[in-house]
Write a structure and sequence with these properties.
Layout: H1 14-20, H2 24-33, H3 37-45, H4 49-57, H5 66-75, H6 78-100, E1 106-110, H7 117-128, E2 136-142, H8 145-157, E3 163-167, E4 180-185, H9 194-207, E5 208-219, H10 223-231, H11 241-250, E6 255-260, E7 266-272
Parallel strand pairs: 1-2, 1-4, 2-3, 4-5
Antiparallel strand pairs: 5-7, 6-7
């Protein structure tokens, strides 16, 4: 049965859970952080698509005067800036790919898509560089129908009527309507164990055409971000670039490159079928 891998919380009430554990500092932080839109979304809805897109947009908001100020401070933390770097990497890799293959009939997928900002901004960047995208079809795959509707509205709101949505589990090859030429997946690897992550990589590899590219990310542990994730009961898996590269090669990719972002937290992996 399919599951939402980013929903790791077990407690019905985070404040009560923190109080039971005698975590008084965490309890104080919980109520302070809720003034920030970013933190409130993370605390209420675990690793939601809104949480990720708030960081990608980088526009502070919150309640009262304190909330937006706190939100802006959180957005400047190394963990948040590194989080945003994975979006930039996916966007820029897509733009470069579309420019190299300009004029070709292509299928591009984001999985799980959330708000497919990397597709919309990557396409806009490619067009700004002179690429013609009339023969490119963009796809979003996600398990949550609400997310798919938001993704459709966001992508089509940019004037792209060639964006198609598909409901399904990212770990199940049967969910993929491919084949595809380019696939991006950011923000899921952290919530998967090695066996599940290998399933994801294999599904993507099988859905790609020969020569197709897969852009994805992973995360290394940093104490502050780990502490805040623990307060929100977000249980994540940390991996270095060699670990991710090995899993991708085992999943059948022909060429794999992995690098750390400028802050050394996010791993950006680019794999070729």
């Amino acid at each position: 049965m399919s599951e939402f891998h980013n929903r790791t919380r077990r407690s019905k009430s985070l404040p009560l859970a923190l109080l039971r554990r005698g975590h008084l500092l965490g309890l104080v932080l919980y109520y302070l952080l809720r003034r920030s839109s970013l933190a409130r979304e993370g605390l209420e809805n675990s690793g939601s698509y809104r949480f990720a897109d708030h960081i990608y947009r980088g526009v502070p908001s919150g309640s009262g005067r304190f909330g937006p100020w706190l939100d802006s401070r959180l957005l400047t933390l190394p963990a948040a800036r590194s989080f945003r770097n994975r979006f930039f990497a996916a966007r820029d890799e897509l733009a470069a790919f579309l420019c190299r293959r300009a004029g070709s009939a292509l299928d591009v997928l984001s999985v799980p898509c959330g708000i497919p900002r990397e597709l919309v901004e990557g396409a806009a960047l490619a067009e700004k560089r002179g690429a013609t995208l009339e023969r490119v079809t963009f796809h979003g795959l996600d398990l949550d129908p609400e997310v798919l509707e938001q993704a459709r509205l966001f992508a089509n709101g940019d004037g792209r009527n060639q964006f198609l949505v598909h409901q399904g589990d990212a770990l199940n090859l049967k969910s993929y309507p491919g084949p595809f030429d380019f696939v991006t997946s950011t923000g899921l690897a952290e919530f998967l164990d090695d066996e599940q992550l290998t399933e994801l990589y294999r599904a993507v590899s099988a859905s790609l055409r020969s020569g197709g590219l897969f852009v994805t990310s992973g995360m290394r542990r940093r104490w502050l971000s780990h502490y805040l994730l623990k307060i929100a009961e977000l249980r994540v898996h940390y991996r270095d670039r060699d670990h991710l590269k090995r899993l991708a090669l085992d999943a059948g990719f022909r060429q794999v490159k992995a690098r750390y972002d400028a802050l050394g937290i996010q791993t950006i992996l680019v794999a070729e079928k």
